[in-house]
Amino acid sequence: MNMMNSFAVLIIWSKIILAVGLPKVQQPNSIPISSTASEIAVVKDFLAKIAPQAKKLGAETLERLFLGYPETKNYFAHFNTSHGSDDLLKQGGKIFNALGYAASHLDNPDGILSALKKLHPYNLRDPDKFHMMSSTINHVMTSNFEEEFPARIQASWDNFMDEVYNVLLTKYR
């Protein structure tokens, strides 16, 4: 995979982090993406299956994030963080829709560049929180999709999420 795919992964986490309102940092250096075409296809297929549940899954992710990592709740002081709140559903949907967007644009350099021009992908801070979010998303996937998330799909998903995390970490080097 090429550098353009690194930008696609950066876009996804930029959207996720922007959706949760974290502050600004410097432009990153990119790193190469190692996912194979087969792994990307698996991730795209899985995201297409779960897309109708994006808001619910995203809200659950945020709820679990707040329970497992209470310090992350500070970024959402203006939210109603109670179970099933409109705030959590809206933000959660943004997170999962952003994952879908990135996965669907990994093979489209023109689309990636266009999206980069429209985004402000440097509004990020605190790389420890990226790992917390990624870990929580993985937990939500495994707990909600035990049958639909066998080892083969989980391995592709984990690789995709690790790459997203690693691309974001390059911002802090």
UniProtKB/TrEMBL annotation:
<feature type="domain" description="Globin">
    <location>
        <begin position="34"/>
        <end position="173"/>
    </location>
</feature>
<keyword id="KW-0813">Transport</keyword>
<dbReference type="GO" id="GO:0031838">
    <property type="term" value="C:haptoglobin-hemoglobin complex"/>
</dbReference>
<dbReference type="InterPro" id="IPR009050">
    <property type="entry name" value="Globin-like_sf"/>
</dbReference>
<dbReference type="GO" id="GO:0019825">
    <property type="term" value="F:oxygen binding"/>
</dbReference>
<comment type="similarity">
    <text>Belongs to the globin family.</text>
</comment>
<protein>
    <recommendedName>
        <fullName>Globin domain-containing protein</fullName>
    </recommendedName>
</protein>
<feature type="signal peptide">
    <location>
        <begin position="1"/>
        <end position="19"/>
    </location>
</feature>
<keyword id="KW-0561">Oxygen transport</keyword>
<keyword id="KW-0408">Iron</keyword>
<dbReference type="GO" id="GO:0031720">
    <property type="term" value="F:haptoglobin binding"/>
</dbReference>
<dbReference type="GO" id="GO:0004601">
    <property type="term" value="F:peroxidase activity"/>
</dbReference>
<dbReference type="InterPro" id="IPR050056">
    <property type="entry name" value="Hemoglobin_oxygen_transport"/>
</dbReference>
<dbReference type="InterPro" id="IPR000971">
    <property type="entry name" value="Globin"/>
</dbReference>
<dbReference type="InterPro" id="IPR002338">
    <property type="entry name" value="Hemoglobin_a-typ"/>
</dbReference>
<dbReference type="GO" id="GO:0005344">
    <property type="term" value="F:oxygen carrier activity"/>
</dbReference>
<dbReference type="Pfam" id="PF00042">
    <property type="entry name" value="Globin"/>
</dbReference>
<dbReference type="GO" id="GO:0043177">
    <property type="term" value="F:organic acid binding"/>
</dbReference>
<dbReference type="InterPro" id="IPR012292">
    <property type="entry name" value="Globin/Proto"/>
</dbReference>
<dbReference type="GO" id="GO:0020037">
    <property type="term" value="F:heme binding"/>
</dbReference>
<dbReference type="GO" id="GO:0005833">
    <property type="term" value="C:hemoglobin complex"/>
</dbReference>
<keyword id="KW-0479">Metal-binding</keyword>
<dbReference type="GO" id="GO:0046872">
    <property type="term" value="F:metal ion binding"/>
</dbReference>
<dbReference type="GO" id="GO:0072562">
    <property type="term" value="C:blood microparticle"/>
</dbReference>
<dbReference type="GO" id="GO:0042744">
    <property type="term" value="P:hydrogen peroxide catabolic process"/>
</dbReference>
<keyword id="KW-0732">Signal</keyword>
<keyword id="KW-0349">Heme</keyword>
